[in-house]
Each structure stands twice: as C-alpha cells, then as structure tokens.
Amino acid sequence: MLFRSFALAAVAAVFTVFPAAAAEMNGREILDEVSRRHDRPYEYESQVMTLINADQSKERREVERFKRDVEAGSRYLLVFQEPAGVKGTALLTWQNRDREDDQWIYLPASGAELKRIAKGGRKNYFMGTDYTYEDLATEPRSKFSYDRQPDETVDNTDCFVVTSTPVDEVLKKESGYKFTKMWIRKDIFFVVRIDYFDRQGELIKRQTWSKLQNIAGETWRANLAVMKNLDQKHVTAVQVAERSFESTAAPAEVFTTQYVSSNRHVK
Where is the signal peptide (predicted)? Predict the structure, then answer.
C-alpha cells in the first residue's frame, strides 16, 4: 500500500520460516521476513483517497503512486490527479541507504520549483490527510530498535506484535513519534495494523490494512488502507483501483525533480 508498511525496505536473507522457527524470531527478524516476502522492485498504484471529517462529510481524491528500487535505495512519487483544487500536487521521496532521505513537494500554484521538505517539517500533515511527511518516508532500520511483544489476535487471526522505537539521537529529536506498534499476521507475515504514539507516549493514530490479495507466491497486498487520527477524529481511507509490478509502470525518469517540475506527471 501507500505508506509506511509498503516502505518496509530492507535486504533480508532468503529463508523459509517454519512454525517452530517463527516462535523464536525476534522483532528485527520478523520485519526482515516481511520485507523478504512482500517487497517488489517496481510498483504502480492508482488509488481513490477519501478524507472523512468528524461530521462525516467526505472529500474524494484520485491519486497515483509510483515506486522503484535503485542502487542507492528506493524512489517514490505520489501524485494527486483529482479534484481540480489539488491536481498536479506531488510528493517526491528518495529513500537513501547511506544518508538521510530527500523529500520534495510540488505545488502547481507556487510555480515550477519543487520545495524541499526540511527535517523539522516532517511532523506536519500532508495535504489535509492523516499522514505526516514522516509517514511517507522511511529511515534505515539501524536507526530503530524492534522489540517483540506478546502475540495477539486481530480479526480472529494470530499476529506477531513488534514495537519500533527510534534509537538514533537525531531521529529521536526530529520524529513526531515516541514509538510505533505493529501487528503482523503470522500466516503470511503481512502488516495489518500500526498504532502511532506521540512523543508523550499517547496513542494518536491507528492505521489498518484489509481486503488482502495474494499477488504471487508469498507476496500479498492490501487493497484498502485506513488511517484514523484519534486526536482529530479524522480519517483517511485509500482504496486501490489498479496495480502493476512491471518496470515500465514506474520508469526511472518519473522519480526526478525535472520530470515533476515540467508537469509531465499530470494527466
């Protein structure tokens, strides 16, 4: 899907997990297995995003998301295609293996230049959604500790539970979260829920993934992601309308500032 669980990128050893072995896995090993099963080098999605306010009024948006792995890391482009008020707005993210991520936003009304998102601004919410810029980026796993918690059941399905806590000193200062808590289905190693805790340790958001689909072999995808902002009583729901794993669906040129600033990303 669109956000953080989709961006659980890491190089993991190729191995088959048997029940006895799974019982002994630590938090980092569980997340590595998630990546081994579900990461794909290229991906495109056409999405319908619905913003739901506290009074249940709704706003519908059409979104495209592109992802491509490169030698230096992974590249992501998120584009709003509808409605007219946000059409052409784009978020370009470079997830870098050996240095901090780069992130730019493009606002058509502000001219042809992309604006770099400063580290201090990543706690801010993106375009009226319940996702912050931080949610739409990734950081190297070396900057977090992954601690396995007691297993739980979600929707009658056994799940691993893993908390992710920043250990990098800079990230601890910049992040809007003290930690996150993930629920991962044991049978398919797929993240189905993440709880987000603010810097005071209070639960502020919950993201769930449903309408799961087996894509190929051990790889699954969710066709619906729902982020609930418990503090603001606001919801962002993302429904996948179309998906492709072909390299031609996410060509390299898409992930450049020149491509976006020239408006070639707009339909």
Answer: 1-22
